[in-house]
Design goal:
The chain is α/β, with parallel strands linked by helices and 331 residues long. The chain contains 14 helices and 13 strands. The strands form three sheets. The protein has a seven-stranded parallel beta sheet, sandwiched between helices. The chain has a three-stranded mixed beta sheet with strand order 7-10-12. Strands 8-9-13 form a three-stranded mixed beta sheet.
Length: 331
């Protein structure tokens, strides 16, 4: 008798396990299918932060697509496809996907868009992730911004030709934790020195990498409201002077040596290098438009009064608290 009871209990457990497995399978099937095109390392490795936010949301069935020769490593919680960047190979990788998010850097995005359309993808997020790339003053100082507006123009044309295809481009300002850790915006956490551009009072929007990742989740969970447009977000607005004041305070009150930089002159020197094929001029053109005190280059989103933080459910962050946490990482 006891043996029969044990058999019945075992059968019941197996039945429950099968039901749970079927429920999980149905859940995975019903989740939106999403491909993240993972770019090369750099710029804070934005792709890894976007991927982390997508996984943590538990709302998407995520596949990562990267170059066949990529050495990037990923955990086992999602599918990874290493492919040649050709139209047919990418279209095959995107087959059955609802959305594609690109975090690549370089000239392959038009090809990726074409592959997404060929595969029947309905929403594409390009690797915009910048300040106001449409600002004419900014484009004059930093010509590479034109490539991003040209890409969006291509997305607009494709959305008209293919009614089931749509796009969203996220503008987020500076990657705050990355630019602070690396000294990209002129404040050197290693040497405790400051290169102050145009007096340091120009305000600019900045967003932490984690919040940029969450903004992608926000877009993909608000598809009708974000269809075929730019969305604009930030964690806060700040300036070099404000950030430097916090750094000096948390560093014990010692004044950092300062060097003055003329943004227009530095930007012109950067463009001259780029014209000679020297890509080391690129950072100066970026700093020159973001921290420009002589022209409004659209770096401070709060001035335009248009932000999508509330729509996308993004947290309010405080520059001093974020800055202090990053400063103390190095101690």
């Amino acid at each position: 008798m006891r043996s029969r009871e044990l058999e019945q209990e075992l059968e019941q457990e197996q039945k429950l396990e099968l039901e749970l497995e079927l429920e999980l399978t149905d859940e995975r099937r019903s989740s939106p299918r999403l491909t993240l095109v993972h770019g090369q390392q750099g710029s804070g490795n934005l792709g890894s932060h976007v991927l982390a936010a997508l996984i943590q949301s538990k709302q998407f069935n995520v596949t990562v697509v990267t170059r066949k020769e990529s050495e990037a490593s990923f955990d086992a919680s999602h599918k990874v496809l290493k492919v040649d960047y050709t139209l047919d190979a990418l279209a095959q990788a995107f087959s059955g996907q609802d959305a594609v998010v690109s975090t690549i850097r370089g000239g392959d995005e038009k090809l990726i868009i074409d592959a997404a359309i060929q595969a029947g993808v309905t929403r594409f997020l390009p690797s915009e992730f910048d300040a106001d790339t449409t600002n004419q003053q900014a484009q004059a100082i930093c010509p590479m911004l034109k490539a991003k507006t040209q890409l969006v123009a291509y997305l607009q044309s494709q959305a008209k030709q293919h009614p089931d295809f749509s796009w969203t481009a996220i503008q987020c300002g500076a990657f705050y934790d990355w630019v602070l850790r690396t000294g990209f915006m002129g404040l050197d956490l290693q040497q405790h020195t400051a290169s102050i551009w145009d007096g340091g009072a120009t305000t600019w929007s900045a967003t932490t990498l984690a919040t940029i990742g969450r903004s992608v989740v926000g877009v993909l969970t608000h598809l009708p409201q974000t269809k075929n447009r730019y969305v604009r977000i930030h964690s806060f607005t700040t300036s070099q002077n404000e950030v430097l004041a916090v750094l000096e305070h948390v560093g014990g009150g010692k004044t950092w040596p300062r060097t003055a930089v003329d943004a227009l002159q530095a930007g012109a020197e950067g463009r001259a290098k780029l014209a000679r094929g020297d890509r080391s001029g690129r950072p100066a053109t970026i700093r020159a438009y973001v921290m420009n005190g002589q022209h409004d280059c659209g770096g401070d989103f709060s001035k335009a009064g248009v932000l999508d933080n509330e729509l996308l459910g993004l947290p309010v962050e405080r520059m001093p608290a974020v800055t202090q946490a990053i400063f103390h990482e190095r101690l």
